[in-house]
């Protein structure tokens, strides 16, 4: 009995010493932290926005949302870049389509996965995966739309590949069996060295009210005419949705002749280097109506040096940060982001029409539902070539003259730049004289503005001896509004 008690006391003492050692060294913390690490759920990692360098031609710019609200964690090595969330067709829960890439893969292809709610397991599950033709994720436009007219929204992934081609991949739901690997069918898969357009048409009131189906939208591609010596000649191919095959099928092609421009100059501009085309469009461009007249109420200013694009229309001004450029056969594909609403993205496909005109196709990122009154699609003419707009005006859009003022000596140059000399300092920027409602206005945009948001607009009035009076104004939905700042008088300097 005494021997048993002696062993018990020895064991108790040893156990006490061991507990003291564990508490003193903190080993117990490391043990539980290891357990916690092993059972910690996977984190959802999404790319963060970074600034772009105009010289980084081949760099991939991450321009996606910092926090994508996705229902499931991605698998190891996958990065979500866009998401579509909507009410499921069953109507009891939300479903999601997630666009993602695998950075470790050399081709950088964008994939799509479908996620919905499992009532039995009371959790969201990943049901279906497919690949798209997009391999440059920074150009991705990812949205849903009823393009077939049967009130079933298709999933659309548009963007560019590493061959600088435009691509379009469209998926349409084929059934509701969650175990079916063909839950969604690929109804269109196109790649072209020109551009791709979904030709939306008006639909009947009965369709809008949910009574009948609507007309399906055609898809048009514009590619290089390989049999023509003119770089700008294109082949238009039209695809229509077939109810019989459930696919988009080619129905016709036609040749579109381009402008006859000196081919050597064309090759200099369209050489596959986005920086060269950026320099070409660095200017103010006015909208040209289908009748061929200049619309001074709608213009776009491309500022590649300041990495911004300014849209002016319907008496409102929208400023977008210039995020990415991708060279195309006929011009440039730009991704931009509104400086005030970060979720509002705008993608601009620019094609060269002539040395003083370009054609734009502009798409809004429909992840944000904002009704835009104006359409930015169409042809634009370079401001320096637009003379008829300013007929009867006292001042041309671009002038070559020097003035003295309270700011200092200001010199306007024909290339659209100005310099203000004050003492030993010199401030430079861009300028443009323009008209709104028969009022002469001057806009100044300084180069040294770090935020790229500073711009001032003045009402211009002509005085005696070719002098000018400038009064600060603001442009908004109510038109031109006075700011009641002191007048600035510009006195011409005699040569």
What's the total count of β strands?
29
- The best one-word shape is globular
**Sheet with most strands:** 8 strands, antiparallel, barrel
Q: What is the terminal separation in angstroms?
A: 123 Å
Number of helices: 5
Considering DSSP H and I runs of 4 or more, what fraction of the residues is helical? 10-25%
Mean pLDDT: 78
**Major sheet: arrangement of strands:** 13-14-15-16-17-18-19-20
Percent of sequence in beta strands? over 45%
Uncertain parts: 25-66, 367-373, 387-393
Specify the structural class: mainly beta
Count the domains: 3
What is the gyration radius calculated from CA atoms? 30 Å
3D structure, described in words:
- The chain has 3 domains: 79-256; 263-386, Lipocalin (Beta Barrel), CATH 2.40.128; 390-492.
- The protein is mainly beta.
- It has 5 helices and 29 strands.
- It has an 8-stranded antiparallel barrel.
- 28% of the residues are buried.
- It has helices spanning 2-25, 27-38, 205-208, 263-269, 274-281, and strands at 79-87, 94-101, 110-118, 123-131, 136-145, 154-160, 166-173, 184-192, 195-199, 218-224, 234-242, 247-256, 284-288, 294-303, 308-313, 316-327, 331-338, 345-354, 357-364, 378-382, 401-405, 408-412, 417-422, 425-436, 439-446, 456-462, 468-476, 479-482, 488-492.
- The chain is globular, with a radius of gyration of 30 Å.
